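Re-run requested by the PI after the first attempt was lost when the workstation crashed. Everything re-entered from the original request form. Ligand of interest: protoporphyrin IX containing FE.
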Amino acid sequence: MSDELSLDSVSLLLVWTAVAIYALAFIAYAVDLARRSDAAVQAQDARAQRALAGVGARGGADTVAGGQDAPASDRQAAPRLVWARIGTSLTWLGFLFHLGATVTRGIAAERVPWSNMYEFALTGTLLIVAVYLGTLFRYDLRFLGAFMTGLVVLLLGGGTLLHVEVVPLMDPLKSIWLIIHVFVASLATAFFAIAFGLSVLQLLQARRERKVAAAARASADGATKTGPRFLATLPTADTMESLAYRFAIVGFIFWTFTLIAGSIWANDAWGRYWGFDTKEVWTFVIWVLYAGYIHARATRGWRGTRSAWLSIVGFTAVIFNFTIVNMFFNGLHAYSGLS
Amino acid sequence: MSRPRSDGPDPLRPADHADSDTPHGASLDSPTQPALGVVGWLRWMWRQLTSMRTALILLLLLAIAAVPGSLVPQRSADPNGVTQYYADNPDLAPILDNLSMFDVYTSPWFSAIYILLFISLIGCVIPRTKHHAKALRARPPRTPARLARLADHIETRVPTGGSADAAARTAVELAARDLKKAGYRVERYDARGAFSVSAERGYWRETGNLVFHASLVGVLIAVGLGGGFTYTGQRVIVEGTTFVNALTDYSSFNPGRFVGEDQLTPYAVTLDDFEVSYQPPGTEAAGQAGDFAANVTVSYPDGTSQSGQVRVNHPLGVAGDSIYLLGNGYAPTITIRDADGQTVFHDAVPFLPQDSNMTSLGVVKVPDGLPEQLGMIGFLYPTMQELETGAFTSVYPDLVYPVLTLNVYAGDLGIDDGTPRSVYTLDPEGMEQLTGGETGVDSIQLFPGESAELPGGYGTITFEDESPPGAQEFEESVKRFASLSIHRDAGGPWVLLFAILATVGLLLALFIPRRRLWVKARADGDDIVLEYAGLARGEDPTLGAAVADLHRRHEAALIAALEDERASARP
Ligand code: HEM
């Protein structure tokens, strides 16, 4: 053991920095959601006031950008969402540290940095953040920011508890399929994670929409409780659903590939492509669950809320597979690096 | 959004598909009320089985049913785990066994689910394939009368300054050409002053869906049939020895149903030497073994031979078989002589590794040549260290300070009556222990090259030093063995083929948008009124953009064309 800072301890330091920055990003995103709640409340008050004073008689609405009676989703682009911007900037910063941590770990280990639990967590969460940030170029999903950064803080922070020193790979892991199979599985996880976040919001939004509709039927007074206020500033449940679906099908393709690549690898390493080893079972279960989700989307009576639940169950299984199955289930996939 | 009835080449879906036209599952929920008769009921049940809802429920059941197999050890994957489970849970285990919990994936209930699922799948795919084959030859459907009712609709007005009727015709011609170039199938529907083109694309979406589902059936059949033509056999082979690919030479052999004994190619495999490297002491993961390689020579019946290497992740292909490396260990060479110095036993005995430092356990059986049958239970410590208790342990897996200890038993080995006994275990029941334990006689303890007296004056035992001449230390003093597994997998390549087909089908089915576009033009005074509209057939997030794109491209092209016409019309 040398006193100088080893490359791996540099990596670990970068990880902790990244976790701290992600935690700050989480706070910023949470503030953003709270602000959105305020905006929603003010919009509602403004509407109420206008209703009292006669349409257009008061200027009380100018605190809320675009505070007309337009549906919530149409107003989305209007507010400047300063806190969301701060959240995103912090996420980018955290990502850079995170990337640095992953690369230095790879250099320290002289191989791809995804071959034990600690490294799975490191690379897996890096991909989650990368896919989220990449998505922001196309869709404004910053309302998912709190969820994404929160998830990453938990997984990456938890992952550091599993930190192990760099050791040479065990023979079965010395394979091109380690590089492909595990990477693609992590990528699939990233897409499933976003789909999961969207599905949860879809459920909340659907509940709010039902309550709003019920309230509208019951009385013209908008004072009934309709769940978290920030929802009023987010896209409709329908929009959430088709977005979630788009992420889930990309994840599903990657997962299908993971399944096939894993079988090819198993055939090389163990002499059979499929043996219902615990990890194989869970990969299969997840695949079937998401196939079910895709089916549900196309089945009358299942589209909407019920299919969203399947997306949630699917992602729960993914996380279960990554954590509990890796650490506590016996099987041939004994590569967590923990003893 | 209300959709036109499926007048055109729409894919055929189960009645409860979300995009289906059938009003709320009517045909599903009520077995068409009045007296149905047997045929009616059967038809109704078949409808139920091939509905989306049933497929979905069966998929979810399949996912749930697969889970127990990861919680409880399975006979197929982990037979020792099952034995252990019986020992640990003597009350629970038989109950679970009755529920097939140790054979989940071949259990009646698991089989029932996937068989029903696949019947449903086939029942669903066949009619859809027929329908789709027809649809592939059909023309795009008639342009709807009121395009404005569609969600994605753009209407513009272009002044022509000349004959609006001719310009409208030109406009639709242009649109048809453009759409055709973009991969649409197009059909003109011109009538009474209104010209239109109806275009459809994305037939590959349904094709992909059908290929995907059909390939799943392919995978299942390949797995099922392939298993019948597959065999695996295991064999332990010590450095310098040879085994022949014949049934009698395997220690265990599992043939599929359709494998005949005569199908084995009688090649011979000699283990020339076995390589392994260990992380040196003082490093992270000291003692971790890796880079296992069995260097072998394969001799074929026709007299040719070839050398090869079997490594983890790199099976060796021989005559259509694949040879895998399963494990390895030490096989100390032991010689036993009787009191007269006659050799009664001489063999390299594979000792099974017990821990990561290769403390190895083995059994020596001497049935003949001595006054009594002798059995010995031995431990090999590649790098021996004595614990404070006086017990031995191995602290490093390589041969640094190898010690062999043996406890000797005399009596009936129980092998004369023909009962098969494992060569790796000795049942000392009914035998007399001569050394170790409570006998008061020390266990035999040997370094390579050393000999010792057997108790009772039976003779001597030697732990042979196998080091080649000039070797230093003990590094090569003990031979190694490799345990090899020989496989023939007839189904594998087919499974892979269908899996790849399924993936390709899936990509097409999920990412090719299926849509219809229409462009309609009619004269209105000197202007033409242009309408662009699109209709998604299934998930299609980019439809709006496609309509807007078409509009932009087409309007520009049209204005340019009208300019040209005017220019050439001028004298
Ligand atoms: C082994 C069982 C099955 C699996 C794993 C499975 C999986 C899938 C997947 C992944 C998709 C999405 C890809 C696509 O749109 O083509 C899909 C779509 C579809 N499946 Fe299945 N499926 C199974 C059985 C069935 C059965 C039994 C039926 C008939 C009742 C069926 C009918 C459909 C239909 C109609 C679609 C198209 C949905 C749409 O319009 O988006 N599938 N299936």
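Saved to the shared folder this time. Helices of chain A lie at 7-53, 82-109, 117-136, 145-160, 176-218, 237-270, 278-297, 305-328.
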